[in-house]
Amino acid sequence: MNKLKILLAMFFLGSNLYASELWSVTELKSKIDQSNEALVLLDVRTVEEFKSGQIRNSINIPHEILLSNIDLVSEYSNEQLVVYCRSGKRAGLVIKALEKNGFNNIVDIEGGILAWSQSNYPLVKKK
Fold it and tell me: For a Cys-Cys bond, which of 46, 49, 80, 90 suits 85, CB 3.0-4.6 Å?
């Protein structure tokens, strides 16, 4: 029983070793609309997904490319980096890699682009 408690504690504590901020899409929309702060919006979905609709002023680096070369975003290491994908899974993988590589001002968007779309916030479509 004690081993089980220790394993559970390690699991829950281990999953929170990296502490990026978590924003709702409402918080993000407010920051985009009202803030003078520079936000770097990083969309880690595929190029096809990105073209189908993204948050204004986002840059697109698919997660599998970024995970193999974190240096692609090294110029943003001292800026607030808002990472999103479709629903959150790929963004989570990228955020862990970024944190392991010294990025410490990272924001995860709860629910990803799906939550953004469901809130009827605008999307920009690339041709």
Answer: 90
